[in-house]
Amino acid sequence: MKRPGVKRKLAELPGRMLLAALFGLALTQAPAFVALAQGAPQAKSQAQLPAQSPAGSLAEAYRIIASKQFVDLTHSFSPLTPVWKGFGPATFSAGADPATGRPYTIGKDGFRVFFYSMVGQYGTHIDPPAHFDLNGQTMDQIPVKQMILPLVVFDMTPMLKTDPNHALSVEDIKAWEHQHGRVPAGSFAALRTDMYKDWTADPQRFKRAPFPAWSLAAIKFLYEQRGIVANGHEAMDTDTTPDMKSETWLLKHGHWQIEVMANLDKVPATGALIVVSWPKPKHGLGFPARAFAILP
Q1: Quick one: 104 and 135 in the same domain?
Q2: Which of 36, 184, 245, 287 lies 20 to 30 Å from 89 when distance is taken between CA atoms?
Q3: Residue 294: beta bridge partners?
């Protein structure tokens, strides 16, 4: 039913009241969409989507995504977190009033804060091209559109039973493709080794060297022949050897990677999406990141 008087009445409202009225009107017209955002049970029914949510709309995309399983691919970190000996551990301390040096507390100030001191490459983190390349992209220059990508996972754990420090090869990738199909262009390639399980259970073993990782030939193949956007792995480095050839090549060719990933054993070989984000320090050379997978 049309209400010819509604438009006239809305036009007569002051700015803030107009926004409130429009918001209230929107709520009355789309209760199912609000229920979806709030996670209400009735929002699970496709029939309850608002009529203004056709196939291909963001509302429809959100309905699909919200119904999927999410897997956190990120480690929590602390001053006890494994880290390369050349960097050293982080320190967390109470943030204090610079004028008095007194730490802020909830009892006296109503809030509290931490002061964090750590290298950027700490915990699950991003390596931007500028980490190794003076002219490479810094963290703040990587397009946000690259922060959500199709995810493929190479499970190397069967190979580690006979070769604990195996480096993924081009032949391994082609064998994977024979089973799962061609690696999609524009995807994020992750390497599963299950090293992440030692992160808290056995930190010294997690820091071992050598360890399973990528081969330079595999990295080149994935970027040059398959057109991936980024790669990631569970170890603190890209290479099985200390020469850092794979990491040097990929960063100096304008690519970025995520290191120290977790829970890749909970993600299928294909079909998932990865969402990864990080802070935006100007000219940043690395920082802890938050990554998660959305399962198919």
Answers
A1: no
A2: 245
A3: 70, 273
